[in-house]
Write a structure and sequence with these properties.
By secondary structure, the protein is an alpha/beta fold. It is 45% helix and 13% strand. Helix 11 packs across helix 14, helix 13 packs across helix 19 and helix 14 packs parallel to helix 15. The longest helix has 21 residues.
Length: 469
């Protein structure tokens, strides 16, 4: 069902480029999430330098990724691409023997028209290891959309749902889960989320979107308290455990940048998409759970009290951010969800810049944003797709926000002009989903504000106001 929200929210589209982090950086979190995978990034030395610097902190973790560096001979078609990739994949098989090899195509592979999709099936047959091709080039995709293309490609590899076999397996799992997790241990702060209810019979539910294992477990527990069992996840912890998909399977996203994956699951795999807000902040998490429960005809139990308890634990942060203003320049496609949560916390959002916006996939989130603004009695923020950074800086000079959430490239220039900044990439790598992780979001947001308070106490007001430039 389509939701018309354009009458109240203002949407604009400028002509800016994707001023974002490179999407091949999705390798940083996906290779850790899919434990039996190996990522082969096909690109130039520039891509290699980027990965080496961006992921260099993981050098001692034996990361399961590598670069297939394109030389001049590759670009001028003097070398045989297939033979070179075959040599590399055979070496990967010998050294690591992964369950799947994922080829990440970069800008250069697009420019020289490398037929990765054509080579992969033949090579897969030769070496006996599945090869998944995902395009993650910065010409077509923003930062986090690298994960979107990988998951969309993996959705095609998920097994078809076998009604009898899968239902029998789910029954066994349900019986096993009844004896586990009678109560979630108290988190620091003393909030007891309550008991887990008996699971009810409902269609299979698959969640898509990469999350740290601890966060994924938290969301599963929250759903289980509402008598809902998660049947599978995309991506799974192991490639060999990909969820079964097909007619009758319901899917729900946990991240707002997975529109291509959602489309693939609906159109290609015939799944039913649950269009819900995303579980970021106590308000978003409650709305996410409520929507899933409503689709399955299950009445929620104690969810409003659960949300209220979490707001109580955030009181010290809320006192700090209330009345402060924030400006999103646009980078990781989490902007609308984060803005909605910060408005609910009492902040004023002047503008939400976002590299790409799929209004259909984010319809429920946009509606929640609109309702949150009305509830908090604040103006509706502008939503600017593909923002032009020059125009944004002019608007920031006029508005003078207390905080700008921006890409790494613009943080230092803005700080030099007296505008407090926070790197948007930090929200991508932090644990921000679910009830209990809302505190981590506010920890990131308030860090520049708390720093300024400390500087004011020391009398360094000139540094804060930018009078030193």
């Amino acid at each position: 069902m389509s939701i018309n929200i354009s009458e109240t929210l203002t949407f604009e589209c400028e002509t800016g480029n994707y001023h974002t982090f490179c999407p091949i950086s999705c390798v940083a979190w996906l290779y850790q999430k899919i434990e039996d995978s190996f990522f082969l990034v096909v690109g130039t030395k520039t891509c290699g330098y980027f990965l080496q610097n961006a992921l260099g902190v993981m050098i001692f973790a034996e990361p399961r990724y590598a670069m297939a560096e394109l030389e001049e001979g590759d670009i001028s078609a003097q070398l045989n691409d297939y033979q070179e990739l075959k040599r590399l994949c055979l070496q990967i098989k010998k050294d690591r023997n992964p369950s799947v090899i994922i080829w990440i195509g970069t800008c250069t592979t697009e420019i020289i028209k490398m037929d990765l999709e054509g080579m992969a099936p033949k090579l897969e047959t030769e070496i006996g290891i599945p090869i998944v091709v995902a395009r993650a080039n910065g010409l077509d995709y923003a930062f986090t959309q690298g994960e979107d293309t990988v998951l969309a490609a993996m959705a095609h590899r998920c097994p078809e749902r076998n009604l009898l076999g899968d239902e029998r397996e789910e029954t066994i799992q349900d019986q096993a889960m009844q004896n586990l997790f009678p109560l979630l241990p108290l988190r620091k702060g003393g909030v007891n989320p309550g008991p887990i209810n008996n699971l009810k019979k409902h269609p299979p539910l698959v969640l898509f979107g990469s999350l740290p294992s601890t966060v994924a477990s938290q969301l599963s527990l929250e759903l289980r308290r509402q008598s809902i069992q998660v049947s599978g996840r995309l991506p799974a912890q192991r490639y060999t455990d990909l969820p079964s998909l097909g007619d009758g399977v319901y899917v729900c996203g946990v991240n707002p940048f997975l529109s291509r994956t959602a489309t693939t699951l609906m159109r290609r795999r015939k799944c039913k998409l649950i269009g819900a807000p995303f579980p970021i902040g106590p308000d978003g998490t409650r709305a996410w759970i409520e929507k899933i429960c409503s689709v399955f005809g299950i009445e929620t139990q104690g969810l409003e009290e659960r949300e209220q308890q979490m707001w109580e634990t955030l009181r010290d942060y809320l006192d700090l951010v209330r009345g402060k203003s924030v400006f999103f320049m646009g980078d990781n496609l989490l902007e609308i969800s984060l803005a909605r949560f910060l408005i609910r916390c009492g902040m004023i959002v002047y503008e939400i810049g976002i590299p790409y916006l799929d209004k259909r996939y984010q319809a429920a989130e946009l509606l929640l944003l609109q309702n949150t603004c009305k509830e908090m009695c604040v103006p509706m923020p502008r939503i600017v797709e593909k923002p032009d950074n020059y125009n944004q800086i002019q608007r920031m000079r006029e508005l003078q926000p207390d905080l700008a959430i921006t890409g790494m490239a613009h943080a230092n220039p803005l700080e030099a002009r007296g505008i407090n900044t926070k790197w948007s990439v930090e929200f991508t790598f932090a644990q921000i989903h679910g009830f209990t992780n809302a505190r981590d979001v506010l920890e990131l947001v308030t860090r520049p504000l708390r720093r300024n308070n400390s500087l004011e106490d020391l009398g360094w007001t000139s540094l804060i106001k930018g009078e030193n430039k």
